[in-house]
Protein backbone atom coordinates (compact mmCIF):
# COMPACT_ATOMS: atom_id res chain seq x y z
CA UNK A 1 0.00 0.00 0.00
CA UNK A 2 1.30 3.46 -0.86
CA UNK A 3 0.90 6.91 0.60
CA UNK A 4 1.99 10.26 -0.78
CA UNK A 5 2.95 12.87 1.77
CA UNK A 6 3.83 16.48 1.46
CA UNK A 7 5.48 19.17 3.56
CA UNK A 8 5.91 22.93 3.92
CA UNK A 9 9.26 24.62 3.32
CA UNK A 10 10.97 21.28 2.68
CA UNK A 11 10.01 20.04 6.15
CA UNK A 12 8.25 16.69 6.14
CA UNK A 13 5.64 16.38 8.86
CA UNK A 14 4.58 12.80 8.49
CA UNK A 15 2.70 10.41 10.71
CA UNK A 16 4.33 7.13 9.71
CA UNK A 17 2.56 4.81 12.11
CA UNK A 18 1.42 2.13 9.74
CA UNK A 19 0.27 1.26 6.30
CA UNK A 20 -3.42 1.67 7.10
CA UNK A 21 -3.50 5.14 8.68
CA UNK A 22 -4.82 8.40 7.25
CA UNK A 23 -2.08 10.88 6.40
CA UNK A 24 -2.29 14.63 6.00
CA UNK A 25 -1.21 16.14 2.69
CA UNK A 26 0.43 19.55 2.58
CA UNK A 27 3.04 21.56 0.71
CA UNK A 28 5.01 20.62 -2.34
CA UNK A 29 7.57 17.95 -1.43
CA UNK A 30 6.54 14.32 -1.36
CA UNK A 31 7.58 11.09 0.26
CA UNK A 32 6.14 7.70 -0.53
CA UNK A 33 5.73 4.84 1.90
CA UNK A 34 6.75 1.93 -0.32
CA UNK A 35 6.56 -1.12 1.88
CA UNK A 36 6.66 -2.39 5.44
CA UNK A 37 8.39 -5.58 6.62
CA UNK A 38 6.99 -7.09 9.79
CA UNK A 39 7.92 -9.90 12.17
CA UNK A 40 11.50 -8.73 12.73
CA UNK A 41 11.58 -9.01 16.51
CA UNK A 42 12.96 -5.83 18.08
CA UNK A 43 14.72 -4.63 14.95
CA UNK A 44 17.28 -1.95 15.76
CA UNK A 45 19.68 -0.92 12.99
CA UNK A 46 20.00 -1.00 9.19
CA UNK A 47 23.16 -0.79 7.04
CA UNK A 48 23.75 -1.21 3.31
CA UNK A 49 26.58 -2.67 1.23
CA UNK A 50 27.12 -1.51 -2.35
CA UNK A 51 29.12 -4.62 -3.10
CA UNK A 52 26.38 -7.09 -2.16
CA UNK A 53 23.42 -4.79 -2.90
CA UNK A 54 21.90 -5.96 0.39
CA UNK A 55 20.60 -4.39 3.57
CA UNK A 56 21.80 -5.77 6.90
CA UNK A 57 19.36 -5.51 9.80
CA UNK A 58 20.10 -6.20 13.47
CA UNK A 59 17.36 -8.14 15.25
CA UNK A 60 17.44 -8.23 19.05
CA UNK A 61 14.62 -10.78 19.42
CA UNK A 62 13.87 -11.22 23.14
CA UNK A 63 17.27 -9.82 24.11
CA UNK A 64 18.28 -13.11 25.65
CA UNK A 65 21.82 -14.52 25.29
CA UNK A 66 22.21 -16.07 21.86
CA UNK A 67 18.81 -15.19 20.37
CA UNK A 68 19.96 -12.10 18.45
CA UNK A 69 20.68 -12.14 14.73
CA UNK A 70 21.35 -10.18 11.56
CA UNK A 71 18.86 -10.51 8.71
CA UNK A 72 19.48 -9.50 5.10
CA UNK A 73 16.95 -7.75 2.84
CA UNK A 74 17.11 -6.54 -0.72
CA UNK A 75 16.27 -2.96 -1.69
CA UNK A 76 12.68 -3.95 -2.44
CA UNK A 77 12.25 -5.03 1.17
CA UNK A 78 12.23 -8.76 0.51
CA UNK A 79 13.92 -10.92 3.14
CA UNK A 80 16.91 -12.75 1.68
CA UNK A 81 18.34 -14.55 4.69
CA UNK A 82 16.91 -14.61 8.22
CA UNK A 83 19.96 -16.50 9.48
CA UNK A 84 22.79 -14.50 7.93
CA UNK A 85 24.30 -14.23 11.42
CA UNK A 86 22.84 -15.96 14.47
CA UNK A 87 23.88 -16.51 18.08
CA UNK A 88 24.26 -12.83 18.98
CA UNK A 89 23.19 -11.47 22.37
CA UNK A 90 21.73 -8.01 21.80
CA UNK A 91 22.90 -6.64 18.44
CA UNK A 92 22.45 -2.94 17.73
CA UNK A 93 24.55 -0.64 15.53
CA UNK A 94 25.97 -1.97 12.26
CA UNK A 95 28.68 -0.53 10.00
CA UNK A 96 30.40 -1.99 6.95
CA UNK A 97 33.91 -1.38 5.64
CA UNK A 98 35.35 -3.21 2.64
CA UNK A 99 34.64 -6.90 3.16
CA UNK A 100 33.77 -6.79 6.87
CA UNK A 101 30.69 -5.98 8.89
CA UNK A 102 30.90 -4.72 12.47
CA UNK A 103 28.04 -4.92 14.95
CA UNK A 104 27.84 -3.90 18.59
CA UNK A 105 26.57 -6.77 20.72
CA UNK A 106 25.84 -5.63 24.29
CA UNK A 107 29.41 -5.59 25.64
CA UNK A 108 31.33 -6.73 22.56
CA UNK A 109 32.18 -5.47 19.11
CA UNK A 110 31.72 -8.36 16.67
CA UNK A 111 33.65 -8.52 13.38
CA UNK A 112 31.97 -10.52 10.61
CA UNK A 113 33.00 -11.66 7.14
CA UNK A 114 30.60 -9.81 4.88
CA UNK A 115 30.43 -12.43 2.13
CA UNK A 116 29.66 -15.39 4.39
CA UNK A 117 28.34 -14.10 7.71
CA UNK A 118 31.15 -15.90 9.53
CA UNK A 119 32.12 -14.34 12.87
CA UNK A 120 35.83 -13.54 12.68
CA UNK A 121 36.52 -11.77 15.98
CA UNK A 122 34.90 -10.45 19.11
CA UNK A 123 36.46 -7.43 20.81
CA UNK A 124 35.94 -6.73 24.51
CA UNK A 125 37.86 -4.21 26.62
CA UNK A 126 36.35 -5.39 29.89
CA UNK A 127 34.50 -2.31 31.12
CA UNK A 128 31.77 -1.86 28.52
CA UNK A 129 28.25 -1.37 29.84
CA UNK A 130 25.87 -0.90 26.88
CA UNK A 131 27.42 -0.65 23.44
CA UNK A 132 25.21 0.91 20.82
CA UNK A 133 26.10 2.49 17.48
CA UNK A 134 29.10 1.82 15.22
CA UNK A 135 30.85 4.13 12.74
CA UNK A 136 33.99 3.70 10.62
CA UNK A 137 36.40 6.32 9.29
CA UNK A 138 38.11 6.36 5.90
CA UNK A 139 41.09 4.40 7.24
CA UNK A 140 38.93 1.59 8.55
CA UNK A 141 39.10 2.53 12.23
CA UNK A 142 35.92 1.54 14.04
CA UNK A 143 34.19 3.65 16.70
CA UNK A 144 31.56 2.27 19.08
CA UNK A 145 29.38 4.26 21.48
CA UNK A 146 28.67 3.13 25.04
CA UNK A 147 25.43 4.79 26.04
CA UNK A 148 25.59 3.99 29.75
CA UNK A 149 29.20 4.97 30.51
CA UNK A 150 29.26 8.06 28.24
CA UNK A 151 32.19 6.59 26.34
CA UNK A 152 33.41 5.76 22.86
CA UNK A 153 35.59 2.74 22.09
CA UNK A 154 37.91 2.43 19.12
CA UNK A 155 39.22 -0.50 17.09
CA UNK A 156 42.26 0.62 15.10
CA UNK A 157 43.63 -0.93 11.93
CA UNK A 158 46.06 -3.06 13.99
CA UNK A 159 43.14 -4.67 15.87
CA UNK A 160 43.83 -2.72 19.06
CA UNK A 161 40.52 -2.20 20.85
CA UNK A 162 40.50 0.42 23.60
CA UNK A 163 38.34 3.01 25.32
CA UNK A 164 39.07 6.04 23.15
CA UNK A 165 37.15 8.76 25.01
CA UNK A 166 35.05 8.82 28.18
CA UNK A 167 33.46 11.97 29.57
CA UNK A 168 30.04 13.29 30.64
CA UNK A 169 30.51 15.88 27.89
CA UNK A 170 29.51 13.13 25.43
CA UNK A 171 26.09 13.10 27.13
CA UNK A 172 25.75 9.32 26.82
CA UNK A 173 26.55 8.96 23.11
CA UNK A 174 24.25 6.91 20.92
CA UNK A 175 24.34 7.50 17.15
CA UNK A 176 27.73 7.94 15.48
CA UNK A 177 28.80 9.16 12.04
CA UNK A 178 32.27 9.97 10.68
CA UNK A 179 32.91 12.69 8.10
CA UNK A 180 36.57 13.45 7.38
CA UNK A 181 38.22 14.31 10.72
CA UNK A 182 34.96 14.72 12.63
CA UNK A 183 32.96 12.18 14.58
CA UNK A 184 29.34 13.33 14.86
CA UNK A 185 27.42 12.14 17.92
CA UNK A 186 23.68 11.92 18.55
CA UNK A 187 23.49 11.89 22.34
CA UNK A 188 20.86 10.10 24.41
CA UNK A 189 21.36 12.51 27.31
CA UNK A 190 22.56 12.25 30.87
CA UNK A 191 20.08 11.33 33.63
CA UNK A 192 18.40 14.33 35.23
CA UNK A 193 19.46 14.88 38.83
CA UNK A 194 15.90 15.41 40.03
CA UNK A 195 14.69 12.35 38.08
CA UNK A 196 11.43 14.18 37.31
CA UNK A 197 12.17 14.52 33.62
CA UNK A 198 13.72 12.10 31.17
CA UNK A 199 17.26 12.43 29.92
CA UNK A 200 17.69 14.53 26.81
CA UNK A 201 20.76 14.90 24.61
CA UNK A 202 22.23 17.24 22.05
CA UNK A 203 23.84 16.80 18.66
CA UNK A 204 27.62 16.97 19.14
CA UNK A 205 30.82 16.72 17.14
CA UNK A 206 34.17 15.33 18.26
CA UNK A 207 37.47 16.09 16.58
CA UNK A 208 39.29 12.90 15.64
CA UNK A 209 42.52 14.90 15.82
CA UNK A 210 42.39 16.21 19.41
CA UNK A 211 39.14 14.75 20.86
CA UNK A 212 37.67 18.20 21.47
CA UNK A 213 33.87 18.18 21.82
CA UNK A 214 31.54 20.84 20.45
CA UNK A 215 27.77 21.07 20.80
CA UNK A 216 26.10 21.66 17.43
CA UNK A 217 22.62 22.13 18.88
CA UNK A 218 22.77 24.50 21.86
CA UNK A 219 19.84 22.86 23.63
CA UNK A 220 18.87 19.22 24.10
CA UNK A 221 16.59 17.68 21.47
CA UNK A 222 15.58 14.36 23.03
CA UNK A 223 16.77 10.77 23.30
CA UNK A 224 18.76 10.95 20.09
CA UNK A 225 19.49 7.65 18.37
CA UNK A 226 20.02 7.16 14.62
CA UNK A 227 22.26 9.54 12.67
CA UNK A 228 22.58 9.77 8.89
CA UNK A 229 23.80 12.29 6.33
CA UNK A 230 20.91 13.92 4.46
CA UNK A 231 22.85 16.26 2.16
CA UNK A 232 26.05 18.30 2.23
CA UNK A 233 24.81 20.54 5.04
CA UNK A 234 22.20 18.50 6.90
CA UNK A 235 21.72 15.32 8.91
CA UNK A 236 18.74 13.15 9.76
CA UNK A 237 18.61 12.32 13.47
CA UNK A 238 16.00 10.16 15.19
CA UNK A 239 14.57 10.67 18.67
CA UNK A 240 13.84 7.20 20.03
CA UNK A 241 11.37 8.23 22.72
CA UNK A 242 9.41 10.81 20.73
CA UNK A 243 9.42 8.85 17.47
CA UNK A 244 10.58 11.87 15.46
CA UNK A 245 13.21 12.35 12.77
CA UNK A 246 14.82 15.77 12.79
CA UNK A 247 16.67 17.47 9.97
CA UNK A 248 19.61 19.26 11.58
CA UNK A 249 22.02 21.60 9.85
CA UNK A 250 25.72 21.79 10.59
CA UNK A 251 24.94 25.16 12.17
CA UNK A 252 22.51 23.56 14.62
CA UNK A 253 19.21 24.56 13.01
CA UNK A 254 16.57 21.92 13.74
CA UNK A 255 13.30 21.16 11.97
CA UNK A 256 10.95 18.20 12.24
CA UNK A 257 11.44 16.02 9.19
CA UNK A 258 9.20 13.05 9.93
CA UNK A 259 6.83 12.04 12.70
CA UNK A 260 6.99 8.28 13.20
CA UNK A 261 6.47 6.20 16.34
CA UNK A 262 8.38 5.88 19.60
CA UNK A 263 11.25 3.37 19.31
CA UNK A 264 12.44 4.47 15.87
CA UNK A 265 16.03 3.20 15.84
CA UNK A 266 19.15 3.51 13.69
CA UNK A 267 17.61 4.49 10.39
CA UNK A 268 19.35 4.43 7.01
CA UNK A 269 19.20 7.05 4.28
CA UNK A 270 20.65 6.23 0.86
CA UNK A 271 21.10 9.62 -0.80
CA UNK A 272 21.67 8.35 -4.34
CA UNK A 273 18.52 6.21 -4.21
CA UNK A 274 16.44 8.71 -2.20
CA UNK A 275 15.50 5.78 0.03
CA UNK A 276 14.80 6.15 3.74
CA UNK A 277 14.57 2.99 5.85
CA UNK A 278 13.17 3.12 9.38
CA UNK A 279 13.51 0.30 11.91
CA UNK A 280 10.69 0.44 14.47
CA UNK A 281 11.98 -1.56 17.40
CA UNK A 282 8.93 -2.19 19.53
CA UNK A 283 6.73 -2.62 16.48
CA UNK A 284 9.04 -5.33 15.04
CA UNK A 285 8.82 -3.55 11.69
CA UNK A 286 11.03 -1.95 9.04
CA UNK A 287 9.49 0.73 6.82
CA UNK A 288 10.76 1.83 3.40
CA UNK A 289 10.11 5.39 2.18
CA UNK A 290 10.95 6.86 -1.21
CA UNK A 291 11.73 10.58 -1.25
List keywords for this structure.
Neuraminidase; 4-stranded antiparallel beta sheet; 291 residues; single chain; disordered N terminus; mainly beta; 5-stranded antiparallel beta sheet; globular
Tell me what the structure shows.
The protein is mostly beta strands and 291 residues long. The chain has strands spanning 3-7, 29-37, 43-49, 54-59, 68-73, 79-88, 91-97, 100-105, 108-113, 119-123, 131-136, 142-146, 151-155, 161-166, 173-179, 182-187, 203-207, 213-215, 224-231, 234-239, 244-249, 254-259, 268-270, 275-280, 285-290. The chain has a single domain (44-290), classed as TolB, C-terminal domain (Neuraminidase, 6 Propeller). A hairpin with a 5-residue loop joins strand 5 (68-73) and strand 6 (79-88). Helix content is 0%, strand content 52%. The protein is globular and about 45 Å long. The strands form six sheets. It has a five-stranded antiparallel sheet, with no helix packed on it. Strands 3-4-5-6 form a four-stranded antiparallel sheet, with no helix packed on it. The chain starts with a strand and ends with a strand.
Amino acid sequence: MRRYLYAICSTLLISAIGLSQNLELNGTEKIQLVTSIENLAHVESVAYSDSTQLLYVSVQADQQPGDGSIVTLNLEGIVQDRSYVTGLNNPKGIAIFNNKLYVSDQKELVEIQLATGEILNKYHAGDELFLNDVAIDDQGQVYVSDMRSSSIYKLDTQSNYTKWLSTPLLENPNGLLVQNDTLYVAAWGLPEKNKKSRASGRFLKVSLLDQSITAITPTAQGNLDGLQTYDQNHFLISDWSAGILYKVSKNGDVVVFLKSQPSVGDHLYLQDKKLLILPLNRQNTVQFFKL
